[in-house]
Amino acid sequence: MGDIARAPAGALDPSSWNPARALDETTRIRTAGPGGSIAVVREDRAYWVRARSSSCSGGDGTFSGVDDYILERPRDNVLDLLVTWPLAGLADARARIPLD
Fold it and tell me: HSE-up of 17 (CA within 13 Å, CB side)?
């Protein structure tokens, strides 16, 4: 998987994370568009991120979406994510993905 993750998310510089700003934008990020939303979990805080690029398509009863994110590789090599997709009935789900 490397340092670039191709999945639902957005580019972040963790040294510039501002929890207050992240909280102010949470609702907007989580409800923008028909697809899912993703947050990086660090130190028990979820930082909702925007996709660097995305595309979607659909038809009769189908939907396909691809979002591209560039994230800093976690020090412990485990990508800790919170994923939600309200329109698809997916409540917040946490995923811890080993990168090695």
Answer: 21
